[in-house]
């Protein structure tokens, strides 16, 4: 795991863990996995899935996924011109 991903997971987990201080880390991870409808073993849970779930956990249902919002274009013509490299 790269250091920036480790730091990001720690930053995202800390406030969520502080909300439920009576849980240990594995209990918290199991709760998060259940929220994501993850049915495999916790060892198979990817850090990317955990990061995105923690980022989107307290957001509205219609909010855009972080990382995709920066690429969104409201105008189709502008998006097409950017994709073709004209802009």
Structural descriptors:
87 residues; mainly alpha; Conserved Hypothetical Protein Ylqf, Chain: A, domain 2; YihD_sf; DUF1040; Protein YihD
What does this structure look like?
The protein is mostly helical and 87 residues long. The protein has a domain at 3-62: Orthogonal Bundle (Conserved Hypothetical Protein Ylqf, Chain: A, domain 2). It has 4 helices and no strands. The protein is elongated and about 55 Å long. The relative contact order is 0.10. Pfam families: DUF1040.
> What form results from the Cα inertia axes?
elongated
CATH topology of the domain at 3-62: Conserved Hypothetical Protein Ylqf, Chain: A, domain 2
The level of helicity is 40-55%
- Could you spell the SSE succession in H and E letters? HHHH
Task: Determine the N-to-C terminus distance.
Answer: 36 Å
Major β-sheet annotation: none
Main structural class = mainly alpha
Q: Please, how many helices?
A: 4
| CATH architectural type of the domain at 3-62 | Orthogonal Bundle
CATH uppermost class of the domain at 3-62: Mainly Alpha
Proportion of strand residues:
under 5%
| CATH-assigned homologous superfamily of the domain at 3-62 | Protein of unknown function DUF1040
Mean pLDDT: 86
Radius of gyration, whole Å:
17 Å
Number of strands: 0
Oligomer: single chain
Q: Regions with pLDDT < 50 over 5+ consecutive residues?
A: none
Topology:
Elements lengths: L2 H17 L5 H11 L11 H10 L19 H9 L3
